Amino acid sequence: MENLLPKARQIEFHPLKLAKKQELTKTTFALEFEIPLNLSSQYHFEAGQYVTLQFLSDGNLVQKDFSMTSAPHEGKITLGIKISSEESFANSLFNNLEVGDDVQVSEPRGRFTLISKPHEFRTIVGFAGGIGITPILSHFKNILHTEPRTRLFLFYGNKNKRQVAFKNELDELVNQYPDRLEIHYFYSQEKLGNGLFEGRLNAKKVALIINQILQLDDTDEESTIWDAVDEVLICGKGEMIKSIANACYKHGIPKKNIHFELFEEFNEDIFPIEKEFPLMENIEVDFKLFNKEYKTTLNNNKMRLLQQLLIQKFPVPYSCKSGICGSCECILEEGEVELLENEYLTEKEEASGKILACMSVVLSKNIKVNFDLI
């Protein structure tokens, strides 16, 4: 989870002491922060959430989001971070932070979460690409700790074996829970002699996984493991998420049980839009953002509200553009929009008038929205 743009909602930061810095691979590392007793309530979190680090980089104050790998019962915040280039914010963190330093860390947030069901028999499948393992690792550690009847299957893709982040920790989990956790690794740039595990995780791989790995179920001889899947977790790049999510849906998993977290900007819909909308032209838009009032006109409603405001150079906060991160959440005060399927807003929030600008198709000649959520 990453976001470099300012957000309309206030983020609360506190200084946390860096307790550990560990290089995982040549391009990934982990940071572990202590949670002091006086801040324990502020840093209570759910598996799958993220925090924002605020850090001075090249004279500029930068904020960036990172998913936690730690589970709530561990009593600490651990982040997995990828270095994309020598000029990146992540590389600056790795080179300049030392154990014992105080770092401005936001209070946890995010909605890549699951409802805990400790008394049920569940089957949960995870798909991770690269550093996308971070929130899924948090989920799996939490579920193994709190749900004794749940079994987990992880399919983890990387370029090669040398780039597998958190391999030791994953191996320890398999050794600790051999009857409940199964992990399979896939490599896009390494030959293994087995075509199933060579190449990227995508829709074709999902079909092979279903047919060759998630086959006969020892707990029910008349069905397969895939038939028993209750929830699917996906985290990685947009194309991977789109391909796998649609494959899972086509193979019988309801959309409401397919959860995903995006680690980069992605300008496409995860699931195809199956509805046509009436054309509206010359749409008047009033909106409040960072305590300023704005007015503009949209030529038509062929594009979503967020995309049109960004084209006009308004500083609207966003990260994914795909209804996942919630950065563009706002309140519809006047007018009508069609809110497309999204992974962020609850039914209660939608009923209260909240929308995501990135997933909103305008259906009236005038609308008024407020991005300044309290």
Question: How large a portion of the residues is in β-strands, by DSSP E?
Answer: 25-35%
Helix-strand makeup class: alpha/beta
Radius of gyration: 21 Å
* Number of domain units: 3
Looking at the structure, the CATH topology of the largest domain is Rossmann fold
Number of strands: 20
Query: What low-confidence regions span 5 or more consecutive residues with pLDDT below 50?
Result: 2-6
Per DSSP, the total helix count is 7
CATH homologous superfamily heading of the largest domain: Nucleotide-binding domain of ferredoxin-NADP reductase (FNR) module
Helical fraction equals 10-25%
Q: Would you identify the CATH architecture of the largest domain?
A: 3-Layer(aba) Sandwich
CATH class of the largest domain: Alpha Beta
What integer is the average pLDDT?
92
How do the strands line up in the largest sheet? 4-3-6-1-2-5
Largest sheet: 6 strands, antiparallel
H/E element sequence: EEEEEHEEHEHEHEEEHEEEHEEHEEE
Task: Give a written overview of the molecule.
There is one protein chain. By secondary structure, the protein is α/β, with parallel strands linked by helices. It has 3 domains: 13-106, Elongation Factor Tu (Ef-tu), domain 3 (Beta Barrel); 122-262, Nucleotide-binding domain of ferredoxin-NADP reductase (FNR) module (Rossmann fold), CATH 3.40.50; 281-370, Ubiquitin-like (UB roll). 18% of the residues lie in helices and 34% in strands. Strands 4-3-6-1-2-5 form a 6-stranded antiparallel beta sheet, with helices on one face. A 5-stranded parallel beta sheet has the order 9-8-7-12-13, sandwiched between helices. Strands 15-14-20-16-18 form a 5-stranded mixed beta sheet. Helix 4 (203-212) crosses helix 5. Residues 11-115 form the FAD-binding FR-type domain. InterPro entries: 2Fe-2S_ferredoxin-like_sf, 2Fe-2S_ferredoxin-type, 2Fe2S_fd_BS, Beta-grasp_dom_sf, Cbr1-like_FAD-bd_dom, FAD-bd_FR_type, FNR_nucleotide-bd, MRET. Its cofactor is FAD.
